[in-house]
Amino acid sequence: MPVETKTTCPYCGVGCGVVATVAEDGGVSVRGDPDHPSNYGRLCSKGSALAETIDLDGRILHPEIGGRQASWDEALDLVAGKFAAAIKEYGPDSVAFYVSGQLLTEDYYVANKLMKGFVGSANIDTNSRLCMSSSVAGHRRAFGADTVPGTYEDLELADLVVLAGSNLAWCHPVLYQRLAAAKAKRPGMKVVVIDPRRTMTADIADLHLAIRPDGDVALFAGLFSHLVAGDAVDQNYIAAHTSGFADAFLAAGRLSFAEVLERTGLPAMQLREFYRLFAETEKVVTCYSQGVNQSSSGTDKVNAILNCHLATGRIGRPGMGPFSLTGQPNAMGGREVGGLANMLAAHMALENADDRDRVQRFWRAPAVAQKPGLKAVDLFKAVGEGRIKALWIMATNPVVSMPDADAVAEALEACPFVAVSDVLGKTDTTRYAHVLLPSLGWGEKDGTVTNSERRISRQRAFLAAPGQARADWWQLAEVARRMGFADAFAYAAPADVFSEHAALSAFENDGRRDFDIGAHAGLARAAYEVLDPFQWPQPAGREPAESRFFGTGGFYHADGKARLVAVAPAETDRTDAAYPFTLNTGRIRDQWHTMTRTGKSARLSSHIAEPFAELHPRDAMEIGVGNAGLVEIESPQGRAVVRALITERQARGSIFAPMHWNDQFAARARIDAVVPAITDPFSGQPASKNVAVAARRF
Ligand code: SF4
Where's the 4Fe-4S Mo/W bis-MGD-type domain (predicted)? Predict the structure, then answer.
């Protein structure tokens, strides 16, 4: 008899439910889970092709040390020994973990606990730093906690949906399908797309604002002024639930309408139309994604958006609110356990002594980290400078995905000890591993993930573990045991980890923190097996329910009020005579990250088969490159060679190139070798959307 298993898609932050069926002959097929409240049976092209990506080609099936097969005991002893020796000789901050939004929450929890509680350093950062850390910083500034106030349903209930820096059609396709279906049913609903490119998402837009790169702070500061001037703000909400209005208004007011036009590059008529729509529509949802986050002013952009929703009181009620769209399947779960170097655990703050004490007591930990650790860019710089003596990379491929990627490769080459846990034996990163640890892949591993609407869902195993591959949480717990912390890491199953994580979220919480899933503390393994998707918060004693935050205030700053943040646009035109183009990197519809899984599907690769750069026809003519000709893109950091795709969807003077391809595909295919390591001052998130480059025919 075929066996069906309910699980969750491992790709984007929509977090769709999947039903995987294993037939009697072992063949696997997938379909959308009709009962999952985030997708109601829908899947996009990537989710539908999951069964084509689970073969064992290229898998690493046993531990390796220096390229030779080793036993788990030998490999784990070596990792634990190298970390312990570095800590003993150079201190806890001489070691680091670089983890991933591809990890399940249980893996993430154990990694964070080991580094922050038992090693005593906060040097654990994640590729979520490249993805959502500006949203985290913006949420914490405004709300006092990293809270997404709304739900996916709000996009369907809104009368105006603003998509800022989001190619929803390609990057969150099922949510786009839900939005498009709602708009088709209610044609009066308006959609505004804010993006320098005319993407596929703009095809359903009533208004496409082809904004200058990084013009968003000016755009939303101008909107804030417009709302105040037109008396379109909610004075009652402002007075009862916010502070900082006067300063935020003063900062926004310094910008004249003419300056907003100049900084956004938008025609006055379009700008006025957007401001009018926003001011006159009560039910507004503003979704924002990487075009907002991946910027040297990403946190200010987030707060400029939040200011407009807080000042109008349009937050946390059906059909209204700001909405951060996470890029990865578990970017939220990682944040919940404190997977970022500047967070603690269960949305507690590393900078708060009471929180540190609370976590230390709960974990019975010897030495909780006292200060933030190194964020991703700084972490790899520290590796390159020899300050990190032992590094463990899990479920990510930084030699392709980090900015200044060639420098990351050089840093790894020079690092005294690098352990890599991955499913594949040969990636651009595994070649630098002294020890390679075989991990479980999708369909083999068990745990939970949290999607963009705070919904926690189970990923379930329906395939046997191949070879000697083991779960990441198990690898971490085994290393912890070898470092002398056996009692605190005596987990026998992911359910044990989840139960502890839920208990920590409720520990001395009493409503002071937003993240509370105490209802699941002490969850039995059998109950974990059948756990249905649920949205947090879920404190003990409350039935699972749809939830929104902040409709009637209740923010997490000490005074219970939100902060309106004074923001001012910074000059971000980085082009000059030598590097006259602005490069914007991003995703395409049918590939995921560095293609280690989606690259296996011929069907997915048939959408776009090769790395490319989109150029405006006149720019292409000026540099003398024809459609499908080779174009070399260069910055002071590095260069990449890709095919030209000539299209009027691209603005003049700008280039779009996808982030996916890697040197396993072709030499010089890694676009992140071109991207410099410029970061947002608050979040540390790299600015991947506004890179000055030269382009020439190759
Ligand atoms: Fe997977 Fe995202 Fe597609 Fe849903 S929308 S099937 S989560 S890639």
Answer: 2-58
